[in-house]
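Hello,

Our lab assistant flagged a job as stuck in the queue for most of the afternoon. It eventually completed. Since we weren't sure the result was trustworthy after the delay, we are filing this so someone can double-check. Below is the sequence as submitted and the structure that was eventually returned. Let us know if re-running is recommended.
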Amino acid sequence: MTTPPVVDGGRGRRTVWGPPPWLWLIVVLLAAQAPTGLFASHRRAAAVVREWQEVGGGGRLTVGVLTLVQSLPLAVALAAALVLLSPRVRMRLVERWNGLMAPDDPRVAPDTAVVYAEMQRFLTARAPGTVLRVSNQVQQLARVYPGGRRTARVGVFVPMVTLWDEDRDAARAALLHELGHLRAGEQHVCGLGSPFVALVVLWPYLLLAFGVVPVALLFLDGNPTAPLMGAQAVLVLLAVPKLLLVVVGALWSAELAADRYAGQAAGRQTLRRGFDRVERGAPGGLARLYHPPVRLRRWFAAEPDRWARQVLLVLWWPAAVLVEALLDLLGGALALRLLGGEWDGWDAAWGAALRLAHDQLAAGPLWWGVLVALVGWPLVARRWPRGWGWHGGERGGLPRGAYATGALLPVVLLCLGLLPGPAGPGTVSDGPAPSATPSAGPGDLPSPCPSRSAPAPPSPPTDLPSFEAPPPSGAAPAPERERAFRTVRVRTVTPLSGTPPGTARDLADRLGRARWRLAADGTLTADLDAVPALRTTSVGGATRLLYGERTGTTEVSATTTWVWARLHTPEGRPPELHLVRAATLATRAVVACRASASTTTSAARLVLELGAP
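-- returned structure --
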């Protein structure tokens, strides 16, 4: 069968070479946030384990999730950086996972090898340097992936062989679709082994782990931090779908643009026949979200020259970003409503959330990045593919009028953000805003939100029992040598300050396995984080009093642990260690531009019997 004529529908001065490669913009935006996110994640990791031990129940789990979920965009950015910096490593892993091999591999049947040789000649004629790899799997037709920085590979699967025999033109259209990705350099950000595709596949599990389970445990536990944590949990529950929406929108835009290129190169009717085969063989489930529904793809390909569809192709990803902003608005209003107070009614909560959205519209980098990409893409579009080794023509273009119309959306939204914000009751604040300088000029604008700084270290509880100082017996010499102990058993454990019995028992279980070291300078230390280093404050005979405290902070919390202790080491009897331990978690969260604080204290009194290690 002869090769069908190539239709060049994108050449000319009055066209723009398709929509911008939005996946690359996502990579740039995530990379810009990575340095600060990496530093913040390091600080969170150092403190989250300590907080996990200090607070019980659902509040404890929610604090941990609130800390970890902030690292989700950073994790996606690091994964994208790894696959971008090591394309050949990704290539080897992809080929191992998918069973991809060379067409002349001995495991390939001779008659099938002839078909693969024809496919390779077709690819080479249109994109020299593109390598074909084949697999005996049956899940899909063909997918692109990187072979190096400027080279790409196309993996084809068993259904492609059948399609090649039954409808060769439709099979060629499927290969042209993959070459449409290569033209945009998208083999590095989508296709086989893409971290963005992996996010789409894994998102139900991420939503369950980071959203549903912590929120459910929080309210079932009845933790006193529930009002504050519930508001934060709403934002956590929306964090994964919001990130997913932006990624899926970019992936769908890339697929629709590749369809447009394939349709102009192979013909619309041929492309539609290829969609029929994709629709029959596509598996269901949420894992297929990284491709648009076949019905939508067929609708775009049916009349690609319709002006409205051309504008929609340009606007597809910006529209997804706009929906993500509306989810932010919904989450902010719901979080404020849960906090109550001056936002006890829905009208006040919606008004405050709307004012916050207006303040953040022009201040954030996202819409400015969209506008820069739309304005700059026509200037670099014809040079961009050459960076990926593409020399296959300029099909798939869009009329400049339709492209410019699509670019009006970020312009309009940014203009709205620069206008004065809506006024009304319920303005969000954190008290009077201090001036940035002693004499602020009339043009200075106050920050619309309070800073996301950690709370001040909490003060110790005042209603705890204390130990009487031992009778004075003169200056007691320090021990001549170090002494070591271990906890033989926990004699008694008594919850204090309204601490749940389960929390006190957890502490007793940890201390029941502790080992202790009394240094020559009178410092008593344990081999677990539940007890800070205790320093001797007074000594009388075989009894000494000790005290220690420790504070750890994250971006949203400060946790202080205090321990008062009495160590009695009489001759001929087992040593005893009496402890009064208190821990207070102070949380300060900025929810919808409102700073809210909460404190939770757990305290217990324990008597430990010590023995030789």
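-- support follow-up --
The delay was a queue issue, not a problem with the job. The result is valid. Residues 1-13, 38-58, 424-448 have pLDDT under 50 and may be disordered. The longest strand covers residues 594-611.
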